[in-house]
# Entry
Amino acid sequence: MSSFTERMIGAAKLDVAIYEEVEADTTATGQALLVVVLSSLAAGLSFVRINGVTGVIWGTLAAILGWVVWAGITYLVGTKMLPEPQTKSDMGELLRTIGFAMSPGILRILGIIPVIGFLVNLIVFFWLLAAVVVAVRQALDYKSTGRAIGVCLIGFFVYILVAIVVGTMSAGISGLMN
# Structure
């Protein structure tokens, strides 16, 4: 069994074996949550001068909620609407694999660097999407990467909607506190 750090590096490298390992390890859900928190903190810290500490806190909470929502929608779409014949999965498998797919997000801390920060965040965004596709393909036992992309896109749009709602709530609460 790989260590937590090895799992994060393997997930960032899109290593299918690591995704299979965390999918099967029912004790790794807490580790997946930690990856989501670290990734969202890195993103929040890269924007701290714009959003302040409150933005980092709300962003982290939104990322955790988004992770659960994305995994839930992916579970429903992937197992109920668009399963392949061999698809067999549960919510925990998706939480673990999608959580570890957030590993490249830790590099968003480099977004704080002037000039290249935007480029770093853009590259990491596409890297995260690729990692989630691999995570979903493995968790849902898909043979088709195209089907995994479709399921991920549906889940991603719901994730974005949740992020917008929480972001709007955060802005409203921050405005009331000032």
Q: What stands out?
A: The mean pLDDT is 88. The two ends are 49 Å apart (CA to CA). The first helix runs from residue 4 to 12. Helices lie at 4-12, 16-24, 29-46, 48-81, 91-101, 117-139, 145-177.
